[in-house]
Each structure stands twice: as C-alpha cells, then as structure tokens.
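Box S1 | Example of a co-folding query
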Amino acid sequence: MDTRDGARPVGQPLIIPIFIPHMGCPHQCIFCNQRAITGKTAQTPSADQIQQAVRRFLKYGKKRPSTTQISFFGGSFLGLEKKTIRSLLGAAMPFVRAKDVDSIRFSTRPDTISQESLNLLDGFPVSTVELGVQSMNDQVLDAAGRGHRASDTVVAADLLKNRGYEMGLQMMVGLPEDDDDGAMETARRIAELEPDFVRIYPTLVLEGSQLAGRYRDGRYHPMALAACVTLVKRLFLYFDTHHIPVVRMGLQASDGLTSSGGFIAGPYHPAFGHLVHGEMVLDAISSALDRMEKRPDPLTISVHPCMVSRVQGLHKQNISRLKKAFDLKKIVLHQDGCLAKDYLMVAGQHVTLPQTMVR
Ligand code: SF4
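Box S1 (continued) | Returned holo structure for iron/sulfur cluster
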C-alpha cells in the first residue's frame, strides 16, 4: 500500500494528494484493500480531475509552507502503463512550471524501479520517490503476498540514489511471520540503504483483504496497540540514531478506515504517532527521575510550548503515569519558548529528546 499521504508533520512539505488506488499493481498483498484505505474506487484520474484537485487545494489549502509537492499515492506509480505515467505527470507539471508547486512525488513498489522505468521520468519535475519495502525478510514478504524480494529493494534504492532522487522507504510491523526482532532487522537493513526518510505502518486487518479471512478463522492475530506503540518507538529511536527521520507512524484517520466496512482489527489509533512520541518523552522523563536521589514535589518540568502535548501524552496520561510511578502529588508544566525543542528541564536537570522528533 505504497503510501498514504496528506497530513503534514512539523517541517515536512505540504502534500497535495492524488489517489491512484491499487493502480499499476498486479499483486494483491494480503493486508491490502486500497478501497478500504482510500475510501475510493479504482479509476485513473483524468488530467482535468488532477488539475481541478490541485487548484482546489492551492486555493483552500492552509498557508504555503516552504515546499509544496503533488503526490501520486495509493497504487504503484511506475507499474502503470507508460502513457498513463506520462499523462499523470503531464497534468501535474504545469503547476511546477508556474511555481505554484515545487515538485512531484509518488510511491511505487521496489520491483517497478529499473533504469528503463526511471527513464520515463526524464524531463518531469519528480524529486521524491517512496518505496513500499514493508520488510527486508523474504519469508515475511512471501507470507504477505508481496511478490518481490528484499534484493529488489536494495537494487531499487541504489538506482534511486544514483539518480539523485530523494528517497523514502516504508516498512510495516506486525506482518504474518514477522516479530519484534524481525522488524528491528528490517530497520537495520533499511538504514543501510540510507533513505532520506522512513514511514512505519502497523499491519491492520481491513475488510476485503485476505488478512480479514485469516483473522476471522483465527490464523492471524494482530498486534495489540500498546505492544505496537512500543515496537514502533524502538524503531523510531533506531532510525534517530542513524539521523533518519520517521515522517509518519500509523495510518491517518480517514473515512475509509473508520467507517463500517473498512477497519476490522489491529493496532489502529487516529493519533498513533502522538502515542509513540508521548511514550518516548515519558521514558526520557522517567529516566531522569530514576537518576534523582530526591525528587521535588511539586515537580516542575520546563518545556518548549510546541512540545507540551507530547510531554502530557494523550489525555495527559504521561502526567498521571509519572505521578503514580514516582509517587508525586503534583507536576507543573512550565512553558519556556527559550528552551530548544529537543530539551526538557526536569527539576532543573537537562533531558535530551530524540532530535528527529522535533524536525
Ligand atoms: S503493492 Fe500490495 S499494498 Fe501496494 S497497492 Fe499493490 S496490493 Fe496494495
């Protein structure tokens, strides 16, 4: 499900999404039901539809950030027919020429990348390509019905890097025959490929997917939300040590997922990334408190204003967990715009947060 886009994390470009659900994809991965994900039936958007969508977005979109990109996602872009690829890129190109948009991006399967397919992009302002890697373990790829090997990803990443594209790699956790160690190994092999950014998606059971049948007859057990958040946190921290930003964790809330007929089971949460960030901050504060011989009560935590919600955690659960774990009566959050975003002061002690969290 090679990318779902839309929301814009801090520091990320504004994305104008153009859905190409399940197009250019001859496969049926067991977890995939693009219709459930995008809430749309498969139909190639016409040049006119694309241009209307982009104009609408530019007109009503929020204030322009430094970078704006038109993104084709939901299918496998370079798996489309050549004339369709040219037509879609041709529809997007005038907005780049007019400087309303900076460039074009798309997502595609690793096995659609070749010298020949990349030649098709010559002359079009494509800057970013995302690959649906999902796993670097062939057994897991087979079990997921991906129809490509880990070696396809290595070759594709090499070609993209050599041609100077910004490269994003997407991985999944909770696939059949995968586990925490397998996910960490996939992260290690992804980091070796030196992507510019990564996305991490939990495996969800969607109506209409093959996984739905396996779930219903007890052959597939999705990850629990809490375990998944903790695993994705470990992956985030691993990528952070390699200075690789994780620009999305979890699917975004969409009608296709939340309405009846879409999501069935699995570690879905509309604020999944926020849960992961919150747990990282909780760990960092807990470590600082563990190191203190005497903890003041009330405890004061100074934080940059833009990080307050991450320190609090969802529904302020970090505050209640800290109070309980360290037997504190009161925690005071002091907002300090002079603090760096990746620093907290916990009772006067500096606490450093992962740098890629605040990009
Ligand atoms: S490659 Fe798999 S996940 Fe991506 S669109 Fe095709 S079937 Fe869906």
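The chain is about 40% helix and 20% strand. Residues 1-10 have pLDDT under 50 and may be disordered.
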